[in-house]
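Fe-S cluster assembly protein SufD
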Amino acid sequence: MTEAVATQTAPAPQNGAQHGLQAHSDGGWDSKIPVQTRSERPKSADVADFPEVTGREAVWKFTPVAKLDDLLNGELDGSRLPVAVTEATGIGSEWIARDDARIGRAGLPEDRAAAAAWTAFGEAHLVTVSGDERVTAVVTRDALGSNPRAAHTVIEAAPHAHGLVILENSGDARITENVEIVVGDGAKLTVVSVQQWDDAAVHLASHYATVGRDASLTHIVVSLGGGIVRLNPAIHLDHEGANGEALGAYFADAGQHLEHQVYMDHDAPHTRSRVTYKGALQGEGAHTVWIGDVLIRNSATGTDSYEQNRNLVLTEGTRADSIPNLEIETGDIEGAGHASATGRFDDEHLFYLQSRGISEEEARKLVVRGFLLEVIQQIGDAETEERLQAAVEAELSESVVAK
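Predicted structure tokens:
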């Protein structure tokens, strides 16, 4: 008896194409290749160009996206924010239309939250810095309310200007926003974003910066309050001799989510960057996320770059995610490196302090205080530094570290 064998012949390739190089029958095979580098991420100011967020995406996998539906998919109030700006010679403040040519120079959204804000805002708040003498502007936002909002801010330093702009955020809020920073040739600008929101506040922000020839930008983030804070600065060193520093300090309490994704893009010769973010965590469910991306493009010969993140864990039940990434497309650089560390107190530091007659409780507080104030003291405004130091002290006074 002969056994029948069923056989199946593969269909011949269409149009003479080589077998194995055809698209799969389910379609869209070429569009499913994941993004390999930071520079390949799609950019658009239209929220419709971004799919709905599931939480499985690389840029969202650490974020509690289930709590952000209204900011990602809902209708946003894009009207003017209630803001107050200190008056000073060399500081300008005005509202400009969304089609103004001064909008869109520093960058475009790379995620749905930023695109939703860009799509919804009606006018942008423009803050300008001019003059050779150093000037300071404080932009206060403390009455945003709990309705979901969108906002857009442009900060511009004229060529050879020297200034400090402090964004003060407090009170209640549910906001997604974009902040553009344009630093003219030879200018020196420091931008500080302070988050001291109420416990229930949610703040999603994307900061974009372009730094001119031989110009310098210092970008400082201090996140101490808010239920969810996700602030992602992207600094583009796209002119020769540009310098960028990204500094951050954060203190997460129980149930608080503080996230910072930093991008330093070297795209011109002889550029320099330094990234230093330091955080402390205490309480059940405290969660911090730091992702640092540094890209040294083929055009960025002579680059000097270094990034680091340090996290100090004060209690059980916390989680700190820290991911440094470094991409180098040219071998002609001065140097590049990255570091990340998460841990508890250094026993040697505590032993040294206690051997000098300091109690264990006070020694622990001194270690945490010095750990975070290294960043805060670089703001350059005594009043703001003192207030933030007091805020850190208040955090420590309630900490189990001090008990």
